[in-house]
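Minutes, project check-in
Item: structure for the 147-residue chain
Input as provided by the requester:
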Amino acid sequence: MRIAVQAEPFDLGAEANGFAAGIAGAGAVVTFTGVVRDLPEGGLRAMEIEHYPGMTERAITVIAEEAAARWQLCDLLVIHRHGRLAPGEAIMMVATAAPHRAAAFEAAEFMMDYLKSRAPFWKKEITSDSEGWVAAKEADEKALDRW
């Protein structure tokens, strides 16, 4: 299991290939990458993501360990960026490996729902005329209810 919280961009292909190489017992590998999307009306210049070093990694590790045990994962990877990111840049990646695809998909969705709504990150949208913190969305909180 690897948890990385970093400012630097990551290479999706290299990370996915490195993760999948040599995983014993896995019959399925699932990857998901989240990217900075522009606002519906356009005009997003950047997204700034803040976190508390140490605390954030510990919180993600706790939930990743829960996912690994619950779905009997062979391995799990979480990469989440912080700092200033432009539209189109990768924010995060989750990869799961399990003996069967259902477990790999469910564990990946669980991790993504957690990262979206509960992981200790704070996001600020920066447009040409304003800056503002992104509020929690009810839909993201409801997504956790199924777990």
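Outcome recorded: The two ends are 21 Å apart (CA to CA).
No further action items on this chain.
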